What we know:
Blueprint: H1 2-7, H2 9-16, H3 28-44, H4 57-69, H5 80-109, H6 115-131
Amino acid sequence: MEQEINNSEVFLKSVLQNSVGFSVPKDYFNTAEDRFSSFLIERELPEETGFSIPENYFQNVEKSILKKTGFKKEVKVISLKSKFLKYIPVAAVASVALLLSINYFTSSTSSEINFDTLEQNRYRKLDCRKLK
């Protein structure tokens, strides 16, 4: 009687905590056909690729391309500094000439400023305001 209890389904479930003891990965049976067909396809493919690469191909390919194109690694560098240094004196002379010409033309057209001319200009402005 005691053996029957030990072999009963309820006893086994209580010991195994509701698991059977065997497990199957999730979606195992849903993807079994796909895995089997991919296995058959892989077996039919040839093991050799049919292509071969010469020895040291990747080490020498850059050199061979450069030889075929005639590319020279030496490049003539034109310095912009030397060109700018040529134009600095010209720019300085031009700016001084512009400054002097502006001062000359503005001073020759305006009258001399002193206290008398300031007072006269003040009265002229006041008179113009009264007229309006």
